[in-house]
Amino acid sequence: MKKAEIKRISEKLISKPKLVWDAIDKREKKKVFDFDKEYQNFLNKAKTEREAVNVISDIALKNSFSLNPSGTYPIRMMKTFQGKSIALSISGEKPINEGINLIVSHLDSPRLDLKQNPLYEEVDLAFMKTHYYGGIKKFQWLTRPLAIHGKVIRSDGSSLDIVVGEDDSDPVFTVADILPHLAKKVQTDKKVSDAFVGEKLNLMVGSLPFGDKDTKDRFKLAILNLLNERFGLVEEDLISAELEVVPAGIARDVGWDRGLTGAYGQDDRSCVFTSLKAIIDIKNPQKTALVLFVDKEEVGSDGATGAKSRFLESVLADLMIANGKEPLYHEIHKILMNSRALSADVNGALDPDFQDLHEKRNAARLGYGICLTKFTGAGGKYGSNDANAEYVGWLRNLFNEKKIVWQTGELGKVDEGGGGTVAKFLALYGMQIIDCGPPVLSMHSPFEIAHKGDIYMTYRGYRAFLES
Predict the structure, then answer these.
(1) What is the CB neighbour count within 10 angstroms for residue 72?
(2) What is the pTM of this model?
(3) Omega before 268 cis (within 30°)?
(4) How far apart are alpha carbons 457 and 463 in whole angstroms?
(5) Following DSSP, what letter does each residue of 190-210 receive, concatenated?
(6) How many CB atoms lie within 10 A of CB 130?
(7) Which residues pair with 204 in a beta bridge?
(8) Class of the domain covering 111-247
């Protein structure tokens, strides 16, 4: 057999992942960088779930989505809940009882939360106590500039949004660490899990006293005085507050060639932004298109604003009313059972320095496009939704037809890693669902890394899905 014939057969039969940069032309490469500028701007404005909801709401309202849509086709509806969850939908040409195309992503990211009674002083310095949120490596949050974002409800019932540490004129905060000269007993000779204690992730917030040397708690009092002068707060107001500590600073291009984006919160706001852009840019979908943005994924999706809540059912009820149908309970569940969904979440990219933790044939790689993750879970796929072959086949063919660069991946070797997403909670409704999003390096760190080509292909993949 001739070499040319062998090559032809090889190209026909063997599956080979494509590098995004090899698959697109010069014009589309420019679109990748233009898209990333919008993406980085979104990351800078939406560092908490509340901020993300506000940004999404503003964008949606500018693009004709409404909290109270009229009967004009197509109906573009927006629904928010408790300031931490939001849904956008566009009615499709087909009846809603035939099912919807649904994309679900999560707005929250790992961080430090201030405790309800956070402020104290020790050795003439002022601190605030924190409780970490989600799966973090604690040492990554030490000795770096941090900002405080959040909401406070004051004693008179008024609310106050706070962002301190992002403007160039703002102070920043930090968690101190022990110097290496003294770290042997407390850190160096211990396991990492024992060396860094959650209760010691204390935020340094002040060093100047209030009053004279006879004033009690004068370093704590100095901070309270500053908070009162600037925000009108008293200490009890901190009890009715949600104040989140996040890395200070903006998203940045990474590398000489600027091909990567580095930023906090790309898990999962990369999927939030790309699905937002996808529904903004579609016009007349075949089926009703719905993008759902939820909270609490990083702590198990519990709570009123998480994926385990009834928010999705409430959105479906409103959609049925908007389409002139009675929102009967069994009809809502029939719609969900007839629906297709993407659990829009990131996967862990193959780390060049820790390749032995991955099974390379089945690991996602930076630069190879949107990643389909058939199953997550751990130790025998426990805690996983495992998408069926029919759905994977349909989605694979859709992406190929639309010339979307895609790959598959899993989260580490068998019995090595594992993790969960919202997919298993939505699968309870009987819908077809699979995890689908870009791979990232340094996941759950204060500075995650994503490939700009993957982010762009994620947008294109989500848009194709919603339009199908």
Answers:
(1) 10
(2) 0.95
(3) yes
(4) 10
(5) S-HHHHS-GGG-PEEEE----
(6) 24
(7) 127, 174
(8) mainly beta
Q: Pairing state of beta strands 370-373 and 432-437?
A: antiparallel
Q: Where are the domains of the chain?
A: 10-109+264-467, 111-247
383: which residues sit within 8 A by CB, 6+ positions away?
376, 377, 418, 420, 424
Average pLDDT, the chain: 94
15 vs 339, more confident? 339
Maximum CA extent, the chain: 95
**Cβ atoms within 10 A of the Cβ of 239, count?**
12
Whether 111-247 and 10-109+264-467 are alike in CATH topology: the answer is no
- Is the CATH code 3.40.630.10 the one for domain 10-109+264-467? yes
Q: What gap in Å lies between CA 90 and CA 8, rounded to an integer?
A: 44
Compute the distance between CA of residue 320 and CA of residue 91 in angstroms, rounded to an integer. 10
Comparing 43-52, 66-75, 214-223, 393-402, the range with the smallest average pLDDT is: 66-75
106 — pLDDT class (breaks 50, 70, 90): very high
pLDDT tens digit string along 320-334?
998 888 989 899 999
